[in-house]
Amino acid sequence: MLEVLVLKVEDPDCFWVVIKGYSPFLDHEVDYQKLNSAMNDFYNSRHQNTEVKPLILEEGQVCVVYCQELKSWCRAVIKSIVPSADHYLAKCFLVDFAKYIPVKSKNIRVAVESFMQLPYRAKKFRLHCTKPVTLHIDFCEDNAEIVPAKQWDSAAVQYFQNVLKATTQVQAKLCAVEGDAFEVYLYVTIKNVKVCVNDDLVAKNFACYVSPTKNEHLAVEKARFSIKSESFSSKLNPALTLWPMLLQRKDFQETKNSHGFNFLAQSVQHTWCKGVVGDLGPAAAVLDKDVKWNMDSVRDSSKKKSEQQQCVSLKDVNKCVESSVYWPIKRGITIYADPDVSAASALSQKPNEKPLRLAEKKECDEKNSCVKLLQFLNPDPLRAGGISDLQQLQKLKSGMQQPVMVLRNKIEPCLTIDSSPLSEDLKKTLQRKKFPGPSHTESYSWPPIARGCDVVVISHCGNDPLLYLPPLLTMLQMGGCYKSLPSRNGPLVIIVCPGWKKAQLTFELLGDYSMTSRPLHPMFLTIGLHKDEAKNMKLPRGCDVIVTTPHSLLRLLAYQSLLFLRLCHLVLDEVEILFSEANEQVFAILDNFKKNVKMEERESAPRQIIAVGVHWNRHIEHLMREFMSDPYVVITAPEEAALYGNVQQVVHLCLECEKTSTLLQVLDFIPSRAQKTLIFTCSVAETEIVSKVVESNSIFCLKMHKEMAFDLKSVLEQWKKLNSGSDIVLALTDDCIPLLAITDATRVIHFSFPSSPKFFGGRLYCMSDHFESLTEQGSPAEQGDKKPKSVLLLTEKNAGQAVGVLRYLERADAKIPLELYEFTAGVLEAKEDKKARRSLCPYLKAFGFCKDKRICPDRHHINPEMDMPRKLSNQALPAFGYIKIIPCYISNATNYFGRIIDKHVDLYATLNAEMNEYFKDSSHKTTVEKLKKFGLYGLEEKTSFHRVQVLEMTQKEDSWAPSSVLVKFIDEGRTGLVAPDQLLDLPENFSALPPQAVEFIVCRVKPTDGEMEWNPKVTRYIHHKIVGKLHDAKVVLALGNTVWIDSMVHVTKLVNLRTSVVDYNVRAEILSMGMGIDNSEHVEELKKLYKEAKMPTSEEDLNQTLTPPSASPSSPSVSAEDTTCLLEVHQEDCGTERETGSETKSENSTSETLSENPGDIPISRTSQPPLKSFHPQIKWFQKDDVVVLKIRLRSIKDYKCKYYQDRVVFSAWVGDKFYLADMELQANIIKEDCKCIIINDEPVVTLAKEKRGSWCRLLQQKNPNVTFDFDHWEERDEERQREGPLPEG
């Protein structure tokens, strides 16, 4: 008894079901899901989409169609065809879903035989021995009786459908097969009662029973297979019957042989890599041994056309090679379905131009019954003989499968998870996580890694940790191989990543996939510059795996090298980045590993180095030669394989009109040995031109393009029959590469520029027989002309690719013409100009430089139109001076968003108070009915209200309303997801004030180890330190909405002592953690950009902007004591840098200790940059008529002292340092009576008071460098009372 699921009911003689159950003979739903996924991948790809459209359409044809309802490609049978104005409309039956759908001819594809290996999912059933009845009335005899009928009554059909709808379980007993349907006894369970539907219909007079012999049409089956109807279910499993495998017609085989198509099939089946079993090329993956292609029908369909054109286009050949043109299940209406032929032209064909001969039609009709019979009883076993074509098609990602290049040591790939060398627990984990199976590269990298061999893997997906993690985890489960290691704490595996971000990602993946294994206790290791951090680092007990960066690992090795005596596996992730950015550190780690593994007690333990990357790097060759033992090299990127194979890259710059002459110059070179040269073109016409030009120069030249498909055999034969001493040249297009499968070329000339890196790699792979690494090559004298050569003709039309070409040539160590550098510089400049409207590069803003401007999508110059400082209210952002800020959102350690606080008028505080007052009234809290993108709304958060702007809205699947809204807090700079009903209508008066959030960037500090992202530890620390607190900052530049500050401090005022204390300096805090280093060039780079942009109107404005004066009327007001605290932090910065061991230039140290006299006014302002100065220490005391200033400087020269009515300015030089004291006095003096003299090598200034009496303080504003001299304090009570309270500085 079979349990079934009913899909569609037409009548009791035709209903469609799916057989349920878990018998090993049945195909599970997952198989059909994989089939649908593979078909979608195959038919959705652009390459295959143009190659698998059928030449003809006919009734009964098996095909693949696109179903709009299911959003999927489905197997189908064409039931009827209706012509319309611009296309044909076919009524198709989906054989896996039992649906009838109309399909346009443009959405019909040839059914590739590899997709037809699974039986149809929908099985056609009918009730066994149960026939319809009807009421027959005989008016002559005047009676009525129930008699058998030819079709089912509508009431019977309705009742049958209702029964199947009401049932909770449907079972069927298979009795016979008639035609294309199974005959069954059907049992349904309704309310726990099982009923036979056959009996029920008969009992209710909807049907009657007939004798089985009257309904039997299995004579052929009995004669050939001796299958009895009554015992069918026990001898033949029904799941193996409805196989859509078609009979190979004799005339097809004859046609295939007569036209040399058998050779074409064989030629296409050449693999890209010789010796690799089961890895088919692009076309061969879908080319079965039976190529059902009727050339006669194509030729007879258009005699006139065949006379004019002797060869069939490669486009049509590909259609026919990759699949059957048609399968003759049933002969009926036949049309041409070529997309280039309109419906009107197809209908206007003459009778003698029918696509199929009448004789052929008759022959097919006679064979139709046998075709159906053998289709049902196909004896081919399911999934026989290893990996099926379906599994190979599932690996086709985008039309063309990448060629395998195992360039060193043969590797047998693992094509499925079951055949992979992984532990059973890990296989289950991968399946539970819906891992699709080993990718093309993984199938070749996993086996050697699991065997403990040294491996180098270069692939386009080389940054994926799953290339090495699964087999590595499997090895760690084999505890026996590590028994000879010292019994101490230490890792078995170290994974070195180029940065903390990649290390963190790998660590997370490691945690996900190591849950099923024994406890590995993995550790994510990052160590800063502090020596104590490395000394005090302790590994968790039992830690077997460490994921880290090269700098962190080297710091730990320097102090705790004994921890790595147990190390067996060293993984270099993204190896090309490691070698380019941390070359010395990586080789130091390798030297340490090499030294440790030579110990005698480790002889039986594994010793493995795994290097994985995206690009080949010249240092990998040294790694293989010095540190690896017989490594396996797996490269699946052809262009990278060419670098490994040491292909000589040559570039010729020329004008487009001079390409032909440049080509002839290249060919004129006469090497010592015969050359097999490929010249790649972009079109048929260009191929013809190149061929003629080459032949005109007395050089034998073959040609191959899509219109010469049947010259393929001849071209290949001539290519292979190269006589010693003779040259051969072949001009061809890129689409001929898979068919020709040439790998022995010695020279490739790119006459036309390759359209993509994939095609460029495919061209270079045509020389793969001659690939040799540096270690395999002899001396330059021995090599001679054996080195394969790639010649690229670069013209003005290829300007967009010039940058990529230059980068590739640099990696190939090729000789690069100076003209190419100049040409590329012009291209980069033009690209930069196109980015004028983009945002400024975030790395340029944060650190003053971008790692690679050539590929960065952002702008790297200042645009005066976009970067003018924006206005917060009626004034623009301050471009210099001192400000107070509150950071509200911390993006990273040096990048914050917050508000500038104006001491006099805080517009945001006023707005916030008004908003809170307004929304206190619940009637004002109106929810927004329809949200608009970038609209401004109110948002209640806890007890406060904010202005927010809508950035994005996420729609619900079953509703038009958004489920969540991404908003930006325009006054704080942060973003967040909120529910739509939380947003409130905002009155217009609350929208008038511009957004108050400003971006702040702390200057002159950057991450350690060449990182471009701040370590999260630093960001978290700074976040908790500064968020929401008031800080004092000095502005050095403002552009757009960004303000650069140097420095930023938190100041605490000591009210009782009338002074202020710096709690911390943000830059110094970052440096003190050991995760940041000095970036002295940051501000200088910003100055350079600012000057190049020519934003200021004069040089004076530029000086004011980039070197701000100590006080400016346009800057927000800051108290003198706060400003003084800001200037004192320079000394703190220098001290911190010395502690962390960072390198600081002497001139930088000098500039950091400068004090710019914030409490005073500059003496003069000229066009030259203002002279920076030190403020001298000054002690003062007074008498009744004078004030005496003792300036604590010795060995001064060029000193000057100028007196004003309420001000005195002293300046002097001590060595190469300039000292300046500009002091505003709290009372007036008599200028003429003042003097400055040198006493004991120190200057002493005497100021005559205008009015006799005691001064309570010397200066109008307090200056920490000016203090009272208590050595001259007089103890007499009378004088103390006369002088008043204690004088202040």
Features:
8-stranded mixed sheet, 6-stranded parallel sheet, 51 strands, 30% helix, 41 helices, alpha/beta, 1289 residues, extended, single chain
Explain this structure:
The protein is an alpha/beta fold. It is 30% helix and 24% strand. The chain contains 41 helices and 51 strands. The strands form eleven sheets. The chain has an eight-stranded mixed β-sheet, with helices on both faces. Strands 25-30-29-26-28-27 form a six-stranded parallel β-sheet, sandwiched between helices. The longest helix has 21 residues, at 1120-1140. The protein starts with a strand and ends in a 6-residue tail after the last helix. The model is unreliable at 214-402, 1097-1120, 1134-1170 and 1280-1286 (pLDDT under 50). Residues 1097-1168 are annotated as: Disordered. It comes from Chinchilla lanigera.
